[in-house]
Amino acid sequence: RIGESLLGYVARVGTANGRTLLSQVLRLAYPNTILGSSLPFADIDLQPLARLFDVPVRALEHVHYNQSDDIAFARRTAYLNGNEVPRKWLSTGRRRISPKTLSQHGYHHSIWDLLPLYCCVESGEQLIDRCSCGTLLTWKTNALTICGNPLCRVDLRDISPPCVSADELDKIQFLGGLFSQEDRRRRAATLRI
What we know:
Blueprint: H1 6-16, H2 22-29, H3 47-53, H4 57-63, H5 71-76, E1 77-80, E2 83-86, H6 99-105, H7 166-178, H8 183-191
Antiparallel strand pairs: 1-2
Helix pairs in contact: 1-2, 7-8
């Protein structure tokens, strides 16, 4: 799916196959390695994951944020949708979402991992990283739409965070366009520079 994050893809496929935890899925591909939210940055061979999901390894490499064999370079630089970005601009420590866009598309967008973006480039909603109950959204569970707190289990798509102004959204869409997976959007944003 265009713009889907690697962790979102793993979680979505895991859920479809009856796995509730991200670690359950990752252990199938990497039984001797502890991975979690660090997967997109890990210096690992993606072939075992590609075999598990029966997808070409290139499809996973494209959404992997670490695309360099140079360890020092990889600590400073990451790749978002094939675009080089400072590593400190990307984070998977917290799962950030736009409830409205998640409801419309059903998957986690990689652009939501880009820290300078505080709202969704599609909906204009401020990205949330906590449920309304206060529980931090992480990548521990595969449920992309449900709060991970077993006492809450609220549907995150029902949360309505504030939206930014039209002027702010235009600026965010410009920035998001620079890192878009779609060539057309990236070219249009680049022409505005």
